[in-house]
C-alpha cells in the first residue's frame, strides 16, 4: 500500500486531489469488447477485477446505432448476444452488391469484370489468399527476404493486377486500415488477412450477404449487457489512465488523470493502440514502443445518408457497394426496417478521404453525393438527411481499429508478440488472431488474456515458493 500512498502524494504535490484508492487482483484498462470479456471471464474464475475507461460510456469503438455480423463466422458474438438476450434481427440479404464503374456484382459476389480483368482479379485474389495463409503469425517477418518493403500496390502489380484490379486492392486497404494500397506494406496486409481468416474471408466480410444479422444498439449494447453481468461497481467510467507503475513488491499501481489510484496484482491493457498516451514504468519493451510509434495512422469517417425509402432495393441492389475512384471506399445498408428507417452509410477513407475532409461542409457534401451517384452509376434520390456519424469522435478509439505496421517493424512484432511485460498484459485488436478488426476477434483476445492472467495468478507450489 506504500506505493499507492506514494503515488497519491505525487498527485497531491502536483496540486491534484487524490480522491479514491481502490484495489483488486486485476485492473482492466478499456471497457470495450476485449476488456469486458476479459473481466467477465476473470470474475467467473473467482478473481476480483475492476475495469477503468476514459470515457463516460461503456463499449469502446466508435458509437454505432447497430452493428452487423454473420452468426456463422462470428460465433462468439452470436453466443454472447443470444446468451444475453439481446435483440438481433435477420437482415435482408437480397439484392446484388455494386462496384463503382462495374455495376451489379455477379451471382457469386465477385465484381462484374470483363474477361481479361476477371482473369487478373482471380489470379491476384487467389495468389494473395495463398500467401496470406502461408504467413506464420508467430514469425510474421519470415517472408521479409521475399517481399521486403513491397507495398500492397506493388504486390498486386507483381501478380499481374490490371489497373481496375489495382483499384480494387486499393479499396481493400482503405477499408481495413484507412490507407491507400501504396501506403500499406504487403506483409502487414497478408498478416492482417491471416489473423482475420485469410483474404477470401476478409473479402466476404465486406460483402452484404455476410452482414446477415443486425445487433440492435451495436457493440455498445453488447458491452453494456456484458458489464451488467459483472459484480456491481466493477466498471469505473471517466477514468483516463495516465500511468501504470510496477513496483518492486510485485504490485501494479494505476493512476488516472483525476488523481484516483488503483492497485492490483495484474493489469490488462485492453486496446493497446488506443492507450498510447499511458506512461508505463518500467517502460514498455523497445519493440512495443517501435510498434506503437511506427504505424502510419489511417483515415476513416462514416457518413449516413438517410432516405424516405430504400430506393436501392427497388433496383434489385443490396445497397452494399465499393467505391474505386474517390473518397468513399465502402457503402453499407444500415437501415432499420422495423422502424421504417432507411439509410446507407458511406465509409470515407484513405488519402482522397483526407482531402475531402479538408473541404468546406457544402462542398464536401456535394462531392460525396456525386461520388455516390458515380458508384451506383445512375441518378440517386436526394437524401432527406446527411449525418456525420463521427462528429463527436474522441481520441480514445482511433478509426480504423487496426494498425498498419510498416514492414521494417515486423521484426519488432516477431520478437515481441505483445507478450506480457511483468504484470501488465495485452488484449484487443492488435492481439487477436481470429477475425482481427471485428468484435469477434476482440472477444477472443479478451478470453485468451483472461486465461493468461488466471494462470499467472495461480498460487505457486509450496516447494517453489520456499525456494524463492
Ligand atoms: C467505424 C467502425 C465500424 C465498425 N463496425 C464494426 C461492425 O459492424 N462489426 C464488428 O464486428 N466490428 C466493427 N468494428 C470494429 C470494432 O469496433 C473494434 O474492433 C472493437 O471495438 C475493438 O475492441 P477493443 O476492445 O480492442 O478496443 P476498443 O473497443 O477501442 O476499446 C478500448 C477502450 O479503451 C479506452 N481507453 C483508451 N485510452 C484510455 C485511457 N488512457 N484510459 C482509460 N481508458 C482508455 C477507450 O475509451 C475504449 O473504450 C468497427 C470499427 C470501426 C472503427
TrEMBL record:
Substrate binds at residues 241, 347. FAD binds at residues 34, 430. Pfam families: Amino_oxidase, NAD_binding_8. Its cofactor is FAD. GO terms for molecular function: monoamine oxidase activity. Its EC number is 1.4.3.-. The keyword Cytoplasm does not apply. Keywords: FAD, Flavoprotein, Oxidoreductase. It catalyses: a secondary aliphatic amine + O2 + H2O = a primary amine + an aldehyde + H2O2. It is an enzyme of class 1 (oxidoreductase). Residues 193-454 form the Amine oxidase domain. PANTHER family: AMINE OXIDASE. Belongs to the flavin monoamine oxidase family. This is Amine oxidase.
Amino acid at each position: 500500500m506504500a506505493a499507492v500512498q506514494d503515488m497519491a502524494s505525487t498527485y497531491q504535490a502536483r496540486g491534484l486531489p487524490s480522491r479514491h484508492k481502490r484495489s483488486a487482483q486485476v485492473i482492466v484498462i478499456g471497457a470495450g469488447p476485449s476488456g469486458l470479456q476479459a473481466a467477465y471471464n476473470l470474475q467467473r474464475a473467482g478473481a476480483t477485477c475492476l475495469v477503468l475507461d476514459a470515457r463516460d460510456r461503456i463499449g469502446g469503438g466508435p458509437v454505432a446505432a447497430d452493428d452487423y455480423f454473420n452468426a456463422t463466422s462470428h460465433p462468439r458474438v452470436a453466443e454472447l448476444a443470444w446468451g444475453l438476450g439481446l435483440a438481433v434481427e435477420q437482415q435482408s440479404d437480397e439484392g446484388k452488391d455494386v462496384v463503382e464503374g462495374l455495376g451489379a456484382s455477379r451471382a457469386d459476389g465477385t465484381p462484374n469484370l470483363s474477361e481479361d480483368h476477371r482473369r487478373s482479379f482471380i489470379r491476384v485474389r487467389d495468389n494473395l489468399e495463398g500467401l496470406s495463409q502461408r504467413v506464420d503469425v508467430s514469425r510474421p517477418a519470415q517472408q521479409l527476404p521475399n517481399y521486403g518493403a513491397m507495398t500492397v500496390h506493388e504486390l498486386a502489380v507483381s501478380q499481374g493486377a490490371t489497373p481496375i484490379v489495382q483499384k480494387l486492392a486499393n479499396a481493400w486497404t482503405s477499408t481495413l486500415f484507412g490507407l491507400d494500397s501504396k501506403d500499406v506494406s504487403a506483409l502487414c496486409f497478408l498478416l492482417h488477412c491471416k489473423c482475420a481468416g485469410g483474404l477470401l474471408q476478409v473479402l466476404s466480410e465486406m460483402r452484404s450477404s455476410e452482414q446477415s444479422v443486425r445487433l440492435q444498439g451495436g457493440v455498445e449494447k453488447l458491452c453494456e449487457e456484458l458489464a451488467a453481468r459483472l459484480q456491481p461497481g466493477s466498471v469505473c467510467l471517466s477514468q483516463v489512465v495516465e500511468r501504470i507503475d510496477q513496483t518492486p513488491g510485485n504490485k501494479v499501481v494505476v493512476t488516472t488523470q483525476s488523481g484516483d489510484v488503483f492497485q492490483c496484482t495484474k493489469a490488462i491493457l485492453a486496446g493497446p493502440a488506443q492507450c498510447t498516451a499511458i506512461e508505463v514504468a518500467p517502460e514498455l519493451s523497445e519493440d512495443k514502443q517501435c510498434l506503437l510509434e511506427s504505424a502510419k495512422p489511417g483515415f476513416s469517417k462514416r457518413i449516413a445518408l438517410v432516405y424516405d425509402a430504400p430506393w436501392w432495393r427497388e433496383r434489385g441492389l443490396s445497397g452494399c457497394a465499393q467505391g474505386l475512384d474517390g473518397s468513399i471506399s465502402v457503402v453499407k445498408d444500415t437501415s432499420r426496417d422495423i422502424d421504417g428507417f432507411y439509410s446507407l452509410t458511406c465509409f470515407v477513407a484513405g488519402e482522397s478521404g483526407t482531402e475531402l475532409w479538408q473541404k468546406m461542409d457544402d462542398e464536401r457534401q456535394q462531392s460525396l453525393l456525386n461520388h455516390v451517384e458515380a458508384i451506383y452509376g445512375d441518378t440517386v434520390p436526394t437524401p432527406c438527411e446527411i449525418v456525420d456519424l463521427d462528429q463527436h469522435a474522441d481520441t480514445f478509439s482511433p478509426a480504423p481499429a487496426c494498425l498498419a505496421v510498416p514492414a521494417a517493424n515486423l521484426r519488432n512484432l516477431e520478437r515481441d508478440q505483445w507478450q506480457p511485460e511483468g504484470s501488465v498484459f495485452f488484449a484487443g485488436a492488435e492481439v487477436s488472431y481470429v477475425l482481427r478488426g471485428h468484435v469477434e476477434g476482440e472477444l477472443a483476445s479478451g478470453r485468451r488474456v483472461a486465461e493468461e492472467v488466471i494462470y499467472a495468478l495461480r498460487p505457486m507450489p509450496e516447494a517453489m515458493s520456499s525456494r524463492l
